[in-house]
Amino acid sequence: MATTKAIKTIGVLTSGGDAPGMNAAIRAVTRSAIFNGFKVKGIYRGYKGLVNNEIVDFKTYHVSNIIHHGGTILKTARCSEFKTAEGRQQAYKNLKKNGIDALVVIGGDGTLSGAKQFASEYDIPIVGLPGTIDNDLYGTDHTIGYDTALNTIMWCVDRIRDTAASHERLFFIEVMGREAGFLALNGALACGAEAAIIPEISIEQDQLAELIQNGFRESKGSAIVLVAESPVTGGAMGLAERVRKEYPQYDVRVTILGHLQRGGSPTAMDRILASRMGAAAIDALLEGQRNIMIGDDDERIVYVPFSKAIRQNKPIDRDLLETLKRLSL
Ligand code: F6P
Description:
single chain; alpha/beta; Rossmann fold; 2 domains; 12 helices; 11 strands; binds 6-O-phosphono-beta-D-fructofuranose
C-alpha cells in the first residue's frame, strides 16, 4: 500500500457532467496541495485524459481567476475506455509515467464508481469530491453545483410564472436530476410551485392523478409543476400528453430547462462548499485516507467510503413534499 509519506505529486481531474463550483474545487485542491508541499498535475478531460495522457504541471497561477466561473477549466468527459480493464491499465501507466502518487477526482456517481473500481485494482490513494448538480450522492447533505442549479431553476421558473398566470395555463417544467428528485422538490419549494413530481414517489403512486383530483385552487387559474427527468415520472412531455388526453379542460404547456441548469457562475454556497471540500481532500490524503468521498454533514466535513457514496437510495425528505402540498393550497 502507498503510504502518505510516499505521496509527492497529486493529480486532479473533473469527470462526468460539469457542475458550477468545480473550478472553485480545482483551485482549492491545487492551492491547498501546494501549500502542503505537494506537486500538482492537472489531468484534462477526466478519465479520458488519464487514458490519453493529457496531463500538465499545475502551479498556483493555473487556478487564478477561476473561482467565479461555471464549467471546469480541466474540461470533462464521459469515458467508455475507462470502463474497460485495458483502459484502466493504460490510465495507471500514465499515472506512473507522470509521477502521480495520489488522485483527487471531482464528479458524480459515475466518477466515484470509476474511482472505486480503479482503486480496487491499482495501488493509488484516491479522494473524491461530490461534484454534481443532482445532489444524489449518499453521505453528503449537499453536492458542489446543486445550490447554483437550484438558483438557476428558480430564476427560470419565476419568468415562466408570469406567462403561466397571464394565460391561466398549467405548466410542466422539467428539471434534471438523473434518477433523483432533489432539484425538482427543492426547486418547487423555492419557486412556490403547486407540486413536484419526482421518481422517489412516482414509483409508489400516480402523482399526476392525485394532483388533478385534488384540484387547483380556483382563484389561482394557473399552476406550475416541477417534474424530475426520469422514465419513472414520465417526464414533462409524458405528463402533458396524459393531461391532454385525460383532463382536456387544462391548457397545458411544457418547458424543459435542460443544460441551462448546468451553467453559470457558482453561488456563494457552492464556492464555499467547493473551497472547504477541496482543502479537506488534501487534509484527508495527509491523514492517510484513501478511497473516500469528502462529504458535508450538518456543516461538518466527513469522510464517506466510495461504496456508501454511490448507493442508489439517498433519501429525499418526505416532509418537504407535505410542506409543498400545504403551501400550494
Ligand atoms: O448528472 C448530471 C446531469 O446533468 C443529470 O442531471 C443529467 O441526467 C445528465 O447529467 C445529462 O448528461 P449529459 O450532459 O451527458 O447529457
